[in-house]
Amino acid sequence: MDRKHSYPNKNKWYSGKNNSHKNFNQNKNEETQLKTVFETHICEYCNQPIEELASAIANKDTGNPAHFDCVLSKINETEKLADNEKITYIGQGRFAVVFFENPHDLRHFTIKRVIEWEKREATYEWRSEIANTYSQVK
Ligand SMILES: [Zn+2]
Question: For residue 62, what are the contacts with CB-CB under 8 A and spacing of at least 6?
């Protein structure tokens, strides 16, 4: 049924000339430039590169960025958690041990203790690096 829409001469028509689509590759360069904006940081806990610097947490000892998950498991190693207690991030470089009365109801909890992980007065170079890059974009 589709036959009546085919054009038998099409191939002949194009094969006679050289393909001169030279603009085709230009977009590739822009992509690689965007990726090199950030200097690659290596997490000192797992030695893997940090893809999302914006969600990184400082290594308490060195001040260098580390994976959020790596810091979390580090805290889990040192904190002794009771039943129904869990470590959660509460913002501004702080974690907290929270207690769930009912582990199936995660909306109701009490904060048992706050862990000041990042020094509050510290300014981390890699974090201002993010800020600077964003302000340059705008
Ligand atoms: Zn890590």
Answer: 44
Cα 103 versus chain centre, distance: 28
**pTM of the shown model:** 0.64
Going from the Cα of 32 to the center of ligand 1, the distance in angstroms, rounded, reads 24
Task: Give the environment of ion ligand 1: residues with CB less than 5 A.
Answer: 43, 45-46, 67, 70
59 Cα to the center of ligand 1, angstroms? 10
- Which residues share a beta bridge with 88? 96
Tell me the domain boundaries of the chain: 33-78, 80-118
pLDDT tens digits, the chain, 138 residues: what are they? 555 554 555 555 544 445 444 445 555 555 555 554 557 899 999 999 999 888 999 999 999 999 999 999 999 999 999 999 999 999 989 999 999 999 889 889 999 999 999 987 788 888 887 777 767 665
**Ligand 1 centroid vs 11 CA: distance in angstroms?**
55
